[in-house]
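Sequence, structure tokens reproduced for absentees:
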Amino acid sequence: MGRKFFVGGNWKCNGNTEEVKKIVASLNAAQVPSQDVVEVVVSPPYVFLPLVKESLRSDFHVAAQNCWVKKGGAYTGEVSAEMLVDLNVPWVILGHSERRALLNESSEFVGDKVAYALSKGLKVIACIGETLEQREAGTTVDVVAAQTKAIAEKISDWTNVVLAYEPVWAIGTGKVASPAQAQEVHVELRKWLKANVNADVAASTRIIYGGSVNGGNCKDLASQPDIDGFLVGGASLKPEFIDIIKSAETKKNA
């Protein structure tokens, strides 16, 4: 069975009520490939999750941008997996490089978060990726393998996990990994899953690319055999997000 193309839109810490309504209206009006071809998930800030969930077309889904590592309680400012489940939010993004870098989330902490979210019935977009220094030092594969290992050690079922490879040096910088560079890392990740988890997980787990994806480069990236979709940042707030969703047709026709 082929891996269904996946396009996630990470809105990060952006938007107000009016802007969010406009983005949702443009998504609702868009002509995009069917759910058989592409799975679309958008991730607004927590405060807009109910608004987006209520008003977004039924073939698109929503994700939170983070959740806490255990059951709720005395954790001021955090949102638990249970709360997301209560709101019928099906997806959560975990381990984004901005949280790893700015909030010092370790790979082990991310692994614990992924395991807890899955245990509560959430689906997870788990983010991994190397910095520019690590790429220039030639340690990209070691870095992303270690980040993946920290997740693999905590979970046994990968059915509800999408792995998002996001080279940190390409996020929001306008620099983008070439299709060949991205494909190379995706191949290595799949090899790692085969060797360290099993062949079925390696073949079925969707590995998506993130890092300055836009309407201009998405088709070339989508044509790579091991790139199963995208996690889109800034461009997910713009009309070109529709073009990125449509790049799923490139994969279908490849």
